From TrEMBL:
PROSITE patterns on file: TATD_3
GO cellular component terms, A-Z: cytosol
Record: residues binding a divalent metal cation 1: E93, D202
Keywords: Hydrolase, Metal-binding
A molecular function (GO) term: hydrolase activity, acting on ester bonds
Full protein name: DNase TatD
Residue positions binding a divalent metal cation 2: H129, H151
One Pfam family hit: TatD_DNase
Keyword hit for Acetylation: no
Species this protein is from: Pseudoalteromonas luteoviolacea CPMOR-1
Length: 263
């Protein structure tokens, strides 16, 4: 079976506290060869790095827009410290979330822009979150020259076109397995070129609704990544192995090939 790479896992989540090692083992049993562990604030970025070192995985370091309001004055220096590790391969999760607005929008923009500037300085990809904020994200990205991925894409066709034209990878989660909320995304899958596609679980969130039987816990985990690949393959009229192969190749090209600089 073709191996896969999970391009986004919240392994620091408290939902994994009781069986984190088993979660990693189950992923390996399903031919998940690597996982990108997401940092959402400085503490979880530290913890994700520690887990990446323990399990020989990779991680991100950054501040999510939900946590932007709590960023300390020296957050860039702290992210830069984390980014000096070879296990840290992206800056983020950073971005804008105007859906929940857990942080003031001007604060979100300031913290996001600073992380974009750091990613550009360090020649590292950005791990980007955007929800209901495409117009402002478009403006921020236009101020920088970045490689990266639009994580857990759920936007419309106009947003997809911009992110593809800009040069980003597009991260697809179990949202594509949801015939209710995910119909717009399902309609757009055909417009995402195979060489720009990443697959991710965003575990423990976004459990694929196509799983049968569904786990009693309702918790998502990396071992369920094949369900995401399977749904994308159906929508693209291809096979799961082809989706696994191209997404793994894309992941390695984006996150594993470029040396960091200026650290």
């Amino acid at each position: 079976m073709q191996t896969m790479i999970d391009a986004g896992v919240n392994l620091t989540s408290s939902q994994f506290d009781k069986d984190r090692a088993d979660v990693v083992l189950r992923a390996k049993s399903q031919h998940i060869s690597n996982m990108l562990l997401i940092g959402c604030d400085l503490a979880s970025s530290d913890d994700s790095l520690a887990l990446a070192q323990t399990y020989q995985l990779v991680s991100t370091a950054g501040i999510h827009p939900h946590d932007a309001k709590d960023a300390p004055d020296d957050f860039i220096a702290q992210i830069m410290r984390l980014a000096s590790s070879p296990h840290v391969v992206a800056i983020g999760e950073c971005g804008l979330d105007f859906n929940r607005d857990f942080s003031p929008r001007d604060t979100q923009e300031r913290i996001c822009s600073a992380q974009f500037a750091l990613a550009q300085q360090l020649n590292m990809p950005a791990y980007i979150h955007e929800r209901d904020a495409h117009d402002r994200m478009k403006g921020l990205l236009s101020e920088h020259q970045l490689d990266g991925v639009l994580h857990c894409f759920t936007g419309d066709k106009q947003a997809l076109k911009f992110y593809l034209d800009y040069g980003l990878m597009i991260g697809i989660t179990g949202w594509v397995c949801d015939e209710r909320r995910g119909q717009q995304l399902r309609d757009l899958i055909k417009y995402i070129p195979n060489d720009r596609l990443l697959i991710e679980t965003d575990a423990p969130y976004l459990l694929p609704r196509t799983l049968s039987p569904k786990p009693k816990s309702r918790r998502n985990e990396p071992a369920y990544l094949p369900a995401v690949a399977e749904q994308i393959a159906l929508l693209k009229n291809t096979d799961r192995e082809s989706i696994a192969m191209c997404s793994s190749s894309n992941f390695n090209a984006l996150f594993m090939a470029k040396p960091q600089s200026n650290i």
